[in-house]
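To fix ideas, we quote verbatim one protein's residues and fold tokens.
>
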Amino acid sequence: MPADEHPTAPLTLRQRRRAVATREIVDAAEHHIAEHGPAALSLRAVARGLGMSVQALYHYFPNRDALVTVLIAKAYDDLADAVRTAADTAPDDPAVPRFVTAAEGYRRWAIAHPELFQLLYGTPLRDYAAPAEGPTTRAMRRMSEVFQRVLFDGFTEEQLAAADTRTLSPPLRAHLEALPPDGAPALPAPATVLMLSGWGHMHGLVVLEVFGHTSFMDGHQAEIFRMAMRDLLADIHRRIPPERTGVGRPDGRAG
């Protein structure tokens, strides 16, 4: 065993019991959200569903916000896992770039978990504020890193910095360049603009579908979404110039 590796001490019986109880509480809270929506979440309702007292639940979560933070971070992690799995298991088909399959993973998770999707992106819960740079922020950045990878892999920093966007004001450029990286190399400001615009387009289509605003499409939403994502990716890549060496930009597989 290398000198810098040390075996992890086994959990005590008390720690194992606490971990099991915590998982049961989180599972019960997710079940409650699935049945009643995020706005109806309360420690009292979760405790009632588990057959325990609110006072006993306080031993694991001191208030509703602590439970909500865990639920949001877990939902972001589950969504990021779905996106990453979709991207990493994409078939070798040039007609369906990995960005498109990643976006479809995002859509499928949202449709399968509409209430948790609403917890992440719906009306903010009254009086809840996520801790600054806390677990919810870290989980959200993890998902952002996946999209950054499938959107821009194969492009150099010089190409991304020269992407064709509208002229950015100095204050906006400074703000974008100061943003913390999302678990991946920091993007030049023009690439950040492209990524935010692309995410807004993708996310907007998913929101419309999850909240029932595209039901008139009568089951054709998946086809429309794939077409939109392919067009979106092509437009973003058209805005990124070829390498100066004369080597063309990627073929759209984006990694």
The first helix runs from residue 13 to 36.
